[in-house]
Amino acid sequence: MANNNSGEGSNAAIVAILVIFLIIIAAALFFFGGQFFGGSETKKVDVNVKAPAAEPGKVVPSKSP
Description:
Layout lengths: L5 H31 L29
């Protein structure tokens, strides 16, 4: 009897599943790799925003009627 290559389809499926897992692992390391390798520190940005002070004795009109 001739071999009908019934085993090659299952091997291709196993390789495809392994490749998908490798892509998922690579994506996880890309997105979360900074947290695992010393990137867990939060960076603080000092934003100092001040409104100009009104001059003494000057009345600031309100915008509401």
